[in-house]
Design goal:
about 450 residues, Protein-Tyrosine Phosphatase, Chain A, six-stranded mixed beta sheet, globular
């Protein structure tokens, strides 16, 4: 089958393209921004890429158009597909019907930690010799790629996103995945551009539970009020709560090690380079999911002790003149707070300079802006970048919303001015934590170059 993928350079659709190619399909695709690293990864796999959405692409005569949720009505190629009455489907639906059908799907859902937990789970399964298939929204160094598929393997780990499927299917992506093992890692309000309130997201999670078989397993953290409401609406599968003393739980042994126990029975100790309670929670969920796939807790713990993390999750981009620059995907107030808490635990009293780009649709709308001052408490200095015009313009004023941080906070709308301000404030021994769900205009490289040109 020849598939032509609209929006192919997105993380999910690009991963889907690689999986379709591995399954033996001919794959071509288009996007408004055909750029590395996804374009390089796709080209290396023999996937032809086309810049833009010109209707002339109908001449490719694919068997099916697979449409990413970046595409909306008014897109010239999509309008031509509709006018011609040609067959099309969404990425999640195609994946569910043609790839996940017949697999033991292990789906990782939740507001935070999906990529990290999915990567941990895939890593555990790989170390256990199970060579899992996976589609993850990031790259763990040990896994090397974000997507992999071998039809002879029956395990498939997938990052299960609650964002909508396509312009013609407003259900969450994950309702197409039919998991046998479902991890609901946490749940709070997000995606204000498509969900009116938390209750609407809870409904989508309830729909996910309706697809898990009786012989499957649902794994949730203890004492998450939103998830307890989801469970109360109906759960027809075995339910495992983790994080409570009566079941599987963890206890920190310092910044970068923790014990895992089942009640009073020790299961082992994880020693790794990651920090923070949120990563301990992610690890516990991954261990529980791996156990449902047949991996012993001891083997899972041993694997996690070799887990090197995920790109753009507290990734050290470099150290220059004794100043360390980190890159992190955090963009929700809860993720910002837990990321800063983890770094504080690691660096002690050293100064942390937090650099934030509120770039997600939810943050641009300002729905959760009032929670940012509390989330940034553990930073010694805060630099907020927000543009007033264009695609990523903020609907609120950082100087006003973050004013309670006083002299610790600066707001900038020009990238070069932001770099100058950060480098001017940095001292040897500082830790600069850059947080954005986008590329931030290459800020990390600019900071490292500017720090290198500065003599302290």
């Amino acid at each position: 089958m020849h598939l032509h993928i609209l929006g192919i350079c997105g993380t999910f659709m690009g991963g889907l393209a690689l999986i379709a190619r591995a399954a033996g399909h001919r794959v071509t695709g288009c996007d408004a921004g055909v750029y590395p690293p996804m374009s390089t990864q796709l080209s290396e796999q023999g996937i032809e890429l086309i810049e833009g959405f010109d209707p002339g692409q109908l001449a490719l005569r694919p068997d099916l158009f697979v449409v990413g949720n970046v595409v909306s009505r008014g897109n010239p190629l999509m309008e031509a597909i509709l006018d011609a009455g040609l067959p099309y489907t969404s990425g999640p639906q195609w994946l569910g019907e043609h790839i996940l059908n017949g697999q033991h799907v292990l789906a990782i859902a939740g507001t935070h930690g999906k990529t990290t937990t999915s990567s941990m789970l895939a890593w555990i399964l790989q170390c256990a010799g199970k060579a899992p298939n996976f589609l993850i929204g990031g790259v763990a160094p040990g896994l090397q790629v974000s997507a992999r598929f071998d039809p002879s393997v029956a395990l498939f780990v997938i990052e299960a996103d609650e964002y909508d499927t396509a312009f013609f299917d407003k259900r969450s992506k994950f309702v197409h995945y039919r998991p046998r093992t479902a991890v609901l890692n946490n749940l709070e309000y997000d995606h204000a551009d498509i969900f009116p309130d938390l209750a609407a997201i809870e409904t989508q999670f309830h729909h996910l539970l309706r697809t898990v078989p009786r012989s499957g397993r649902v794994i949730i953290p203890a004492q998450d009020p939103a998830l307890e409401r989801v469970i109360a609406r109906g759960c027809w599968s075995a339910l495992q709560r983790v994080g409570e003393a009566a079941g599987w739980h963890t206890r920190a042994n310092g910044a970068q090690s923790f014990e895992v126990a089942d009640g009073t029975t020790p299961l082992g100790e994880v020693r790794w380079n990651l920090t923070g309670e949120h990563n301990r929670n992610n690890a516990l969920a991954a261990l529980a999911a791996a156990a449902h796939a047949g991996v012993s807790p001891g083997d899972g713990i041993a694997a996690l002790s070799q887990f090197a993390g995920v790109k753009r999750r507290m990734e050290i981009r470099g150290t220059v003149n004794q100043v360390t620059v980190y890159d992190d995907f955090a963009h929700h107030p809860t993720a910002i707070r837990t990321t800063l808490d983890g770094l504080r635990l690691q660096v002690g009293s050293a100064r942390i300079l937090a650099v934030l780009e509120p770039r997600s649709n939810t943050m641009k709308l300002g729905t959760m802006a009032a929670r940012l001052p509390e989330a940034l408490t553990n930073a010694d200095l805060v630099f907020c970048f927000g543009q007033h015009t264009g695609k990523h313009a903020l609907g609120w004023d950082p100087a006003v919303v973050l004013s309670e941080l006083g002299s610790r906070m600066q707001a900038h709308d020009q990238l070069d001015q932001l770099v100058t301000a950060i480098v001017g404030a940095a001292r040897p021994g500082d830790h600069i934590l850059v947080m954005s769900n986008g590329s931030f205009g290459g800020l990390h490289t600019q900071l490292l170059d500017a720090l290198g040109a500065t003599q302290h």
